[in-house]
Design brief:
Length: about 180
Amino acid sequence: MDGNGVIDASDKTKIGDPFPDFTVGWNLNIGYKNFDFTAFTYASVGNDVYSAWERNGNYTNRSRMTLARWTGEGTTNDPRFPRYSFTDANSNIRVSDRYVQDGSFIKLKNVQLGYTVPATALKNVCKSMRVYLQVRNAITLTKFTGLDPEIAGGIMDTGIDRGAYPQARTFSFGLDIKL
């Protein structure tokens, strides 16, 4: 960074921003005859994520990106994929831009399809009945290589992916009855 040809503490610089340039969300609600459809989608654009989980100790599991590592002449010289060694004399796990990724994403958070049974079919059993199918965390579109760009954790972990489990995709069936 300082141009003197020596890599030392003077070369440190800001290498990422965990806060998005903008976020956007939208809802879609459609009804036709006795059917209804709802979808909730949102996006985060321009945030960076520091993949702390990739800096695990030497004797822990690695991501499959390790397969693209440098293995000798004629292989990658990409600094994101250095030679792998159990002893790691070069300290390849030290903090660097190697672990910073674009965390932008678009998520389909909730989608639901419902059907309201006609009152004539209920024959005074109840006032109304609605049956629905729902999927939560249906789709995530991102170039992020971690488990989930929508990182779990508190304010102190903003923009830091420690490898927490992603939000579960949940399929639900429901029945709403009004007596």
